[in-house]
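Journal club prep — side note

Before the paper discussion, L.F. wants everyone to see what a predicted structure for a comparable chain looks like in token form. Sequence:
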Amino acid sequence: MKVHHIGYLVKNIEKSITEFKKLGYTGDNVTRDEYRGIDICFMENNGYIVELISPYHDASTVSGLMKKYKNSPYHLCYISDNLSEDIDKLSSDGYTQIDIPTEAPAINGKKVVFMMNINIGLIELVEA
């Protein structure tokens, strides 16, 4: 599977956008994901994409991670040609599905799902 982006937790998305721009990244369109309680901004630098993710309330899906890890990368996202098949294959390879496929407003409504592996951590799959 091809990497789509690296998810990066940030406490203050606007300040983080400013800092990533200093490193040569472009993009500043922030999308609010009501379902997950997060603000998201995709930024790109020479084909390398980071997804800045910031919780906007304490019940957000990443609030607990933010408290533990602070500002840091926390997942890799892979493009999936077939979510159902990839979920089944990864599940048989020792990954645990931790949510159900849901639409992601910051990725044009494409479905995403998160999976965990004890040896590498969290990954995300996004439908092609």
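L.F.'s comment for the group: The mean pLDDT is 96. Keep this in mind when we get to the figures.
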